[in-house]
Write a structure and sequence with these properties.
The chain contains five helices and eleven strands, in the order ββαββββββββααβαα. The protein is of the alpha+beta class. The chain has two domains: about 100 residues, Jelly Rolls, CATH 2.60.120.10; about 90 residues, no CATH class. The longest helix is centred in the C-terminal third of the chain and has 17 residues. It is globular.
Length: about 210
């Protein structure tokens, strides 16, 4: 599954085009180009417990907060987002931005981006592209290895998310949907994700 994959979120105006998919790299990393409109702020303050990210600006300007450090980055400049460190970035100025991002290892980030965009297409998000509360709980619980948001506080999320996610699943909500992906794509992503989950016995994540 080495063909280019493009994901567009009509609510946020963001578009992502694959450069290297997890199926191309054995899950070692995933890389893509992000086309971000003026004012875009994907996706808010968050951290990755088991991934490192590298973001390189191709055009436009972004401002990033990584831990306690905040600064602007322009074309040709890169920022490293180490695992476990809270970070956020957003487009500044009056020009859209283009970036190249790499996440190492890939884990389930492709599945997360595709799901969020698919829900946005269906009108199942708010005006910032965030899923409705129960759907958000199902997603937040399943992808906690991929991303954790700072709000609400993580301690609160650890108590509340499992309860809300269980309720959401009983109502038929899922962390991903076949209709948002190509045939075989979900199984391939999950297989590569499992290969890089030694802390979980390399088991496939279950939603």
């Amino acid at each position: 599954m080495d063909e280019e994959r493009s994901i567009t979120n009509p609510v946020t105006g963001e578009r992502y085009v694959s450069v290297a998919r997890s199926s191309d790299t054995g899950g070692e990393y995933v890389e893509g180009r992000g086309f971000l409109p003026v004012g875009a702020r994907p996706p808010g303050m968050h951290r990755h417990a088991r991934q490192d990210e590298l973001v390189t600006v191709v055009r436009g300007q972004i401002r990033a907060r990584v831990g306690n450090d905040e600064r602007e980055y322009g074309p040709g400049e890169s920022l490293l987002l180490p695992r476990g460190v809270w970070h956020d970035f957003w487009v500044v100025g009056d020009t859209a931005a283009e970036v190249v991002g790499r996440a190492t290892p890939a884990l389930g980030i492709e599945l997360l981006l595709g799901t969020l965009a698919g829900l946005a297409v269906e009108g199942r998000t708010d005006k910032r592209g965030r899923p409705r509360p129960l759907q958000g709980a199902v997603i937040g619980q399943f992808y906690r290895e991929v991303a954790e948001f700072k709000t609400p506080p993580p301690a609160v999320q650890r108590v509340v998310l499992p309860v809300l996610a269980s309720l959401g699943r009983r109502r038929g909500l899922r962390p991903y949907y076949d209709r948002h992906f190509e045939p075989g794509e979900i199984d391939e992503i999950l297989t590569q994700w499992a290969a890089h989950r030694p802390w979980a016995g390399n088991e496939v994540p279950r939603g």
